[in-house]
Amino acid sequence: MSGLRLDWATLGAELDAFEAQLKAGAAALSQAGAPEPGGTPRDQILHTGKARLFRYRPLVASPQAVPTLLVYALVNRASMADLEPERSLIRSLLEQGVDLHLIEWEAPTPIDASRGLDDYLHGDLAACVSLLNRQAGPINLMGICQGGTFALCYAALYPAQVRNLVTTVTPVNFHTADDALSHLLTHIDLELLGRQNLSGDILNALFLSLKPFRLMHQKYVGLVAQLSDPASLATFLRMEQWIFDSPDLAARALHEFAQLFYRENRLFVGGLKIGGRACELSSVNMPVLNIFAQDDHLVPPASAQALAGLTGSTDYTALEVPGGHIGIYVGGKSRRLVAETVARWLAARS
């Protein structure tokens, strides 16, 4: 320590500047409010069960003739896909000419605790697809995360209704060595978990615990530098609002998904049944585009890559995209790459 000399004047000035930055940031936060998601124009065309089906208004003169239905997960709000105009996967797909539709799941009430996967797939999802089938014939299905797993299952159950299938950050093998969520679920009492709807707050705590330093501490240190930038602050607040606004999950559907997919790994090893009907990946006979994230901590690349060779398709394409589980949808380069790849791939097969 003998050679170390502190410049107290410089240190004091830096601390004063930091304190001023914090005060200005606190004032900006107090005035910021809760910014709304992207708000890309859309129209509701169906309300069935616990699902609302929307069609987004085209942003090009001649959109693709085959409709694409985006299936999101039950565990989060679909607003992540339309976070803000500059960070919107939905807007990027529309700009590429995709005729985009979205299922927005409604949160279950206590009387919905008995809703199972068959209600969501054979009921709600089937009703949405059937409406689009009547209008345009077989459609394109595109799924995100658990929504991708639902899309895979639906394509296996009803292959004649699906023209092309796109999966993004979609778990297939739920027993890969680096799947932290799968390891965590081995220590949870699933019978207890399935007795009543799971609170979204508990679900948030579960997801945050998988990467606590990055998701609960490091990002707030970085926030200090964003406080003086209104646009960056608004983006941060939108992400925080999305992260902490997870809906409740229906007890039966949660129990079935945890048991069949995470515990028994039925989608990967076979023997999966939903609503009494066999759901085998070998029945997925349409073209498949499988996109996964290089640094995904929720769906490890190995889990998504496991889809290769399991389907009955002769047209299978895989793409690894730089970024994390959410970053590939809200980041700049990755989001554009995903949108452009999906649009080109669908156009070539439509």
Instruction: Provide the number of structural domains.
Output: 1
What is Rg? Answer: 22 Å
What is the CATH topology classification name?
Answer: Rossmann fold
CATH superfamily heading:
Alpha/Beta hydrolase fold, catalytic domain
Q: Tally the helices: what do you get?
A: 14
Residue fraction in strands:
5-15%
Low-confidence stretches: none
- Record the strand order, biggest sheet: 1-2-4-3-5-6-9-10
How would a crystallographer describe the biggest sheet? 8 strands, mixed
Fraction of residues in H or I helices: 40-55%
Q: What is the CATH class designation?
A: Alpha Beta
**Helix-strand string:** HEEEHEHEHEHHHHHHHEEEHEHH
Q: Which architecture does the CATH hierarchy give at level 2? A: 3-Layer(aba) Sandwich
Would you tell me the structural class of the helices and strands? alpha/beta
For the termini, the CA-CA separation is 71 Å
Mean pLDDT: 86
**What coarse outline follows from CA principal-axis ratios?**
globular
- Strand tally is 10
